[in-house]
Amino acid sequence: MAVSEAGKSENLQTTKLIATWLIGGVVLGVSALGVYFTFPLGKWRMKKKNRPVRVYMDGCFDMMHYGHCNALRQARALGDQLVVGVVSDAEITVNKGPPVTPLKERMIMVSAVKWVDEVIPDAPYAITEEFMKKLFDEYDIDYIIHGDDPCILPDGTDAYALAKKAGRYKQIKRTEGVSSTDIVGRMLLCVRERTSSESQNHSSLQRQFSHGHNQNSEDSGSGSGTRISQFLPTSRRIVQFSNGKGPGPDARIVYIDGAFDLFHAGHVEILRLARGLGDFLLVGIHTDQTVSAHRGAHRPIMNLHERSLSVLACRYVDEVIIGATWEVSRDMITTFNISLVVHGTVAEDNDFRKEKCNPYDVPISMGIFKLLDSPLDITTSTIIKRIVSNHEAYLKRNERKTESERRYYEDKTYVSGD
Q1: Which of 173-182, 203-212, 242-251, 255-264 is least confident?
Q2: Domains of the chain in sequence order
Q3: Are 85 and 57 spatial neighbours (Cβ–Cβ below 8 Å)?
Q4: What is d(CA 117, CA 36) in angstroms, rounded to the nearest whole number?
Q5: Closest CA to 333 of 245, 246, 253
Q6: Is the CB of residue 146 less than 8 Å from the CB of residue 169?
């Protein structure tokens, strides 16, 4: 029986091809004529099917605050794993001015945020082609994330232009009412007011910060050129930051309290030690009025709700008391079933033993008080002193940022998201 030309060709292919395997991303074929290769397969395409979605976000994370934490929370929600790049001190200095906190401290802060899975130190300020390839190939990054506020380089170009061009960019909503520039501006305004003999009520700025009032640069008289944003706390934001679960019936509950103003690496490290002493860490955060009474009218720099969110974002913290009393009472210990009360050796209130009313008298009398050796010699005053000692440089830094901040707020439109 005659066989068509097409049939002959098909039979020939069947005879020649014995088997094929997929080896190392290449289709390998064995035939009667020997071994042959076909097209290579994209590595990331093969792996993506059975691996988590990994997203990347970078930043300076200088004077880290709840706005940074909320950005990281939103970024993490866009994938299964969040990798964070922390920009080097040198790159920050070139692009924005001198950082307040050095890389080592910023790494501690970012690593402690509960939505972060991995941290890359010394990340570049701009996403270069080489670094983007490294993210995709070595870190298996699927998407690069940034907020809806523009990130413009000194030459006027978009820092995320390459990621957008590659189709691997996703945007999140910027958190309202706070920025590092804003916080530095608060301190500069306080320094100005404290040293000015023409000042009105010397506690006015602190009261405005505590109650979320908007202090524009035009009416501040500070010369800092800094727009103080308005913080708008919501119950939903607290829920988003909360772990949403309490301690088990037999949990050893550790309690630590404080102002936790300008949440910094020293706070993180003492919280880490405290959490290691039990199963559940409860943190008491003092009211603005309590902090002012013990540390002066210009404190706290950040209000109670802002401080609460910063502490809640820390992976070592299980729950917070928003507006804890100064004294740790027997009723509080009973109500929360506290097993141990701790306090760090490096703190701004370490004269408590000399006070007429020691706030820890009750836990001391019950034998459940412990003084912890603080790993870092950093307090909120340390951060403020860094600003004050180099305030001219920070004034210039904030002045450079003022125009972009002003444009952002003037041109801002509604952006959906969290």
Answers
A1: 203-212
A2: 5-41 (no CATH), 48-172 (3.40.50.620), 180-232+381-409 (no CATH), 235-378 (3.40.50.620)
A3: yes
A4: 42
A5: 253
A6: yes
Name the β-bridge partners of 338: 253
Tokens for 7? 């049939």
Query: Six-digit token pair at 64?
Result: 């880290």
Bridge partners of 283, per DSSP, are: 256, 320
pTM of the model: 0.77
* Model pLDDT, residue 95: 84
131 pLDDT band, cuts 50/70/90, is: very high
pLDDT digits (tens, 9 = 90+) for 208-258: 433 333 444 333 333 433 344 466 778 999 999 999 999 999 999 999 999
**Distance (Å, whole) CA 181 – CA 399:** 9
Identity at 123, one-letter amino acid code: A
In this structure, what token pair is assigned to residue 62? 């200088």
Q: Which helix (H) or strand (E) holds 178?
A: none
Sign of the CA dihedral with 388 first, then 392, 394, and 398 last: positive
Helix axes 380-389, 180-195, angle to 10 degrees: 80
Report how far Cα 117 is from the mean position of its chain's Cα atoms. 12
Distances (CA, A) of 213 to 283, 403, 406: 27, 21, 17
Tokens of 218: 């035009």
Residue 196 DSSP one-character state: -
Distance from the first to the final alpha carbon of the chain: 73
